[in-house]
Specification:
Elements: E1 5-14, E2 17-23, E3 28-33, H1 40-48, H2 66-69, E4 82-88, E5 93-100, E6 103-105, E7 116-119, H3 127-130, E8 140-142, H4 150-163, E9 169-174, E10 182-190, E11 194-199, H5 205-219, E12 225-229, H6 237-254, E13 257-262, E14 275-281, E15 288-292, H7 296-303, E16 312-316, H8 319-332, E17 338-343, H9 347-360, E18 367-371, H10 379-387, H11 402-416, E19 417-419, H12 428-441, H13 447-457, H14 465-476, H15 482-500, H16 506-523, H17 532-550
Parallel strand pairs: 3-13, 3-14, 7-12, 12-13, 16-17, 16-18, 18-19
Antiparallel strand pairs: 1-2, 1-4, 4-5, 5-6, 8-9, 9-10, 10-11, 14-15
Helix pairs in contact: 4-5, 4-6, 5-6, 8-15, 8-16, 9-11, 10-11, 14-15, 16-17
């Protein structure tokens, strides 16, 4: 356990941050991810000023205080600011930090002691940019007293792994003039130039950052709190990956709490022990929310790539069902989250797709199977259809046994399938023509729909609704080519959906699919959770449908 570890931070009010809460592992690396201006630096500074410097440590320490970080400026005096931290040490305690009437509490000397190091973005600005001199750069070298022998070799070895280079030496450097008089130097084994020794002024920004960050982590006492702002700045992707691996290893070895703020996109595929929180800024209100993990919507905010949020795959029976789901996704404003709407071309194939998906994958949270509502609508009927398609698949079974595996897969596949609510188990074509006739009888149908219904009424012998719509499209098509007829049928389906969606029967018909799609988007963190009132309305609607079925 880390010494005086922070286990929870709750920000009640710090400028634009309100009701932000994070639970931190006592040992390990935590990443706070967010776009520019989302409040990452504010959180890092709140963590930094929680402690006073630890006594009896030879290392130079800074006394981070709220007064240093949260200075008044025009329009903001920070009065009313408040955050609290849970600290786990010899005695667990919650400390409240607040500014009232111009003064911060608690007093600086009343804070717990701990070694804290905040490595800001400015700490890795290339020295040559801050220390420009006309004279030649002359300096005196000396060894790292604090890193001698094996520790120095380990230090140089870690830097070499991250930078993919060989550094045989490094140490302190001093000069007598300029803005920066104390810095560091390094020796590099260069294949072209041989051994090259140079000061930090002539390091690349990323190289200097690695030397600084790795050194601070090596020097930090056991149980320290290390805060690093945007370590990815100036680093190529592999170097950032290797640096994060180093931080995780050192955190475990030295019982460190390491917190980084970042917008590095590699976080989304990180396989290590990283604890991640993402800050999301509402575009409408500018309010900031915080949640554990990195949701697809947060990835999209960082990258701008639609591929980061197109996560949902939907399978339907036919082209009409595909158009219904597409229309519904537009109504719910979730079409941007849908990667694919696949067509199985029959109810039988749809159940085969469900079985195949669960056999192939363990996680099916982003898959939805939509039936027409005319076949296998009860839970028992669905299970029967699935059982026909899932059987023993050989000897390569999990340790819990074949039967347990099969039962789990059956349950997964059955749960994937939902359907439109057709009161009389009508297929979509029957439902659409039924509603169209009601609109005509009520005087609410547009002229084109009245004309189409008349054409269908004159067909002899009277065809089934699916055939009737195909024949109607064939009549309207100027070509006999199957592809042209299919396109005309698609246009007819689109017009029908537009008319039916305005009727009172549309919402109950699509409600099971609508609710499932919204729940999926919320579970995948693509949408915020529904407010309580909305949730009650969904439950009420479901209850009304069940009551209608019982009549």
């Amino acid at each position: 356990m880390a010494n005086n570890a922070i286990t929870r931070l709750k920000i009640h009010q710090l400028q634009r941050l309100r009701d932000i809460e994070l639970e931190l592992p006592e040992v390990g690396v935590t990443a706070i991810v967010g776009v520019n201006g989302s409040g990452k630096s504010t959180i890092m500074r709140a963590l930094a000023c929680t402690f006073q410097p630890k006594q009896r440590i030879a290392l130079k320490q800074e006394d981070y205080r709220p007064q240093k970080f949260f200075k008044s400026y025009e329009g903001c005096d920070w009065n009313g600011s408040s955050f609290d931290v849970d600290i786990k040490g010899d005695q667990d305690e919650t400390r409240v930090f607040t500014k009232l009437e111009g003064a911060w509490q608690p007093l600086p000397q009343n804070r717990f002691q701990r070694y804290v190091k905040l490595i800001g973005i400015g700490d890795a600005v290339p020295h040559i940019e801050r220390d420009a001199e006309d004279e030649s750069l002359e300096y005196v070298k000396s060894d790292f007293i604090e890193l001698d022998g094996p520790r120095l070799l380990s230090y140089l070895g870690e830097i070499g792994k991250i930078m993919d280079r060989s550094y045989p030496a490094a140490g302190h450097a001093k000069k007598n003039s300029g803005a920066i008089q104390s810095f560091l130097y390094a020796s590099l084994d260069d294949r072209s130039l041989g051994k090259v020794t140079y000061p930090s002024h002539y390091m690349g920004a990323g190289e200097q950052k690695i030397f600084e960050v790795v050194r601070e982590v090596f020097l930090a006492p056991k149980g320290s709190l290390i805060l690093i702002e945007e370590p990815e700045v100036s680093l190529h992707n592999k170097a950032m990956h290797d640096l994060l691996l180093f931080l995780e290893e050192q955190a475990e070895k030295k019982k460190l709490q390491v917190v980084i703020s970042t917008h590095w996109l590699g976080i989304k595929s990180w396989k290590g022990r990283l604890c991640t929180y993402s800050l999301n800024v509402d575009k409408a209100t500018d309010a900031v929310t915080c949640k554990k993990g990195l949701a697809p919507a947060d990835q999209h905010a960082l990258s701008g790539h639609l591929s980061d949020i197109k996560k949902i795959t939907i399978w339907v029976e036919d082209e009409l069902a595909k158009k219904i789901v597409d229309h519904l996704a537009n109504e719910l404003n979730v079409k941007k989250f849908i990667q694919k709407i696949g067509v199985a071309y029959s109810a039988s194939n749809l159940f085969s797709v469900a079985a195949g998906i669960v056999i192939d994958r363990d996680n099916v949270d982003n898959v939805m199977i939509v039936g027409d509502g005319d076949v296998a609508t009860s839970l028992e009927e669905k299970r029967t259809e699935i059982e026909k398609r899932i059987s023993m698949v050989g000897e390569n079974m999990p340790l819990d046994g074949p039967r347990v595996w099969v039962e789990r897969k059956r349950a997964q596949a059955t749960a994937l399938v939902t359907e439109f609510h057709a009161a009389n188990q009508e297929n979509p074509e029957s439902f659409f023509l039924s509603v169209a006739q009601e609109l005509r009888d009520a005087g609410k149908a547009p002229p084109w729909l009245i004309e189409d219904l008349g054409e269908i009424a004159r067909m002899r012998p009277p065809p089934q609704p699916k055939v009737a719509l195909y024949e109607l499209a064939k009549m309207k098509c100027e070509s006999d080519a199957p592809a042209d007829i299919t396109n005309e049928l698609g246009s007819l389906h689109a017009r029908l959906i537009g008319a039916i969606a305005a009727s009172e029967r549309w919402s109950p018909y699509v409600e099971p699919v609508s609710s499932r799609l919204k729940q999926m988007c919320e579970a995948l963190n693509l949408l915020p959770p529904s407010p309580p009132q909305a949730a009650l309305q969904v439950v009420a609607a479901a209850g009304a449908i069940q009551a209608a079925e019982a009549i």
